[in-house]
Amino acid sequence: MALIVQKYGGTSVGDVDRIKNVAQRVKETYAAGNQVVVVVSARSGVTNELIGRAKALNPQPDEREMDMLLTVGEQETIALTAMALHALGIPAVSRTGPQAGILTDPSHTRARITSISGGDIKEQLDAGKVVILAGFQGHSAEGQITTLGRGGSDLSAIAIAAALKADLCQICTDVDGVYTADPRLVPDAKKLDEISYEEMLELASSGSKVMQNRAVEFAQKFNVVFEVRSSFNNNPGTIVKEEVASMEDVVVSGVALDKNQAKIVVSDLPDRPGTAAKLFQVLGAAGISVDMIVQNIGRDGKANMTFTVPREDIYRAEKTVVESFPDEAAGKLFEANDIAKVSVVGVGMRSHSGVAATLFDALAKGGVNIQLISTSEIKISVGIDPEDAEKATRLVHAAFGLGQ
Ligand code: ADP
Ligand code: ASP
Ligand code: MG
């Protein structure tokens, strides 16, 4: 008997028929003699709809109340999924994140898991029940309900799989696995049979929303091997695991697009030790994650700092910078504009040269201007005009021969 964690995302539980489909699949896994924990998301669109309603009432809703609101989405799905299983004659019981003892820090809307007791999940499984767990939620030591960041049901699934020492963790979604690029954007993208944690993490952090990046980070830390696969067929998916030597033969594994970035230029800063430290320290303290940093010194001897942030953080970033550099605030300190980020990722980059040249050449031939460049050991990213984003993704995908 194996213990299997299956996570079903928003589209997979999007309506009554889809919930019936999930129940049928869970029934098959259970009937094969396995213990099953099912982690579900809110129906697709529900979380966004709730956010929309909150913002219609208050543009900056209180984060505790936001968590109170958003956790409703998953709570609907756990109850409906349990009922669908009951209708198929399968004993099933739903549990919220707090009931499963998913303890987090108190940072509402982006809480980090601190420990997982599992509540009575083991007992329920041993009593022959399927346990349906609400994804995306936990509770703080103060007893408040918290959420784990957008896409956080992936993290709930990986974390409960680690805590229960599950034999198998399947992330069931609306595509057949992890592809060389978003298959909705690049029609000839290929499904990968396997990918390393590191590459998956870079893709997820660079905009491939097939997995939440924090979920991948958690899986890597606790060595949870997992499979991304379809909720709608039985095709083998993509195994995400520790790197093996043969993975390095592939130079580039995938291309990611993030259309939700902003480029910020903070100009006229003093060129002296401590300027960058102060700027990024205050942004970090405001919870703003910064990427792609470039510093240059103007002819006037002033430092200009260019960097990217998620688009929703522009106003918070501006407020933080203006408040932290009051002496410079009178000048043209802060400029922001929308940007898209295209990234190529592959562990093979460590040992193969020429990746940057191929990337830049593909963009040049397509007439795409590069505004910013950043590199890591296994990733190269470029910041470009959002208008060029989709064309650039397809050009780069083709240039690395990733298509079918
Ligand atoms: P779920 O609701 O199941 O969590 P998501 O919508 O969060 O599903 O993630 C699945 C989506 O991720 C796919 O529909 C696909 O459009 C998108 N996606 C982006 N990049 C990739 C990629 N490299 N491989 C597969 N899917 C990708
Ligand atoms: N419902 C949450 C969201 O939309 C969590 C998830 O789907 O994973 O972000
Ligand atoms: Mg998701």
Oligomer: single chain
Morphology: globular
**Overall residue-averaged pLDDT value:** 95
Fraction in helix:
25-40%
Radius of gyration over C-alpha positions, nearest whole angstrom: 23 Å
Derived from helix and strand composition plus strand pairing, the structural class reads alpha/beta
Protein name: Aspartokinase
GO molecular function, one term: aspartate kinase activity
Catalytic activity: L-aspartate + ATP = 4-phospho-L-aspartate + ADP
Keywords: Amino-acid biosynthesis, ATP-binding, Kinase, Lysine biosynthesis, Nucleotide-binding, Transferase
Structure overview:
By secondary structure, the chain is α/β, with parallel strands linked by helices. Helix content is 33%, strand content 27%. It has helices at 16-31, 46-57, 63-87, 121-126, 153-164, 197-205, 213-221, 275-285, 314-324, 355-365, 389-399; strands at residues 3-8, 35-40, 92-95, 102-104, 113-116, 130-134, 137-140, 145-147, 168-173, 194-196, 226-230, 238-241, 254-270, 291-297, 302-310, 334-345, 370-376, 379-384. A hairpin with an 8-residue loop joins strand 4 (102-104) and strand 5 (113-116). Helix 6 packs antiparallel against helix 7. The longest helix is centred in the N-terminal third of the chain and has 25 residues, at 63-87. The chain is globular, with a radius of gyration of 23 Å. The mean pLDDT is 95. It binds adenosine-5'-diphosphate, aspartic acid and magnesium ion. The site of magnesium ion has 4 residues, from loops.
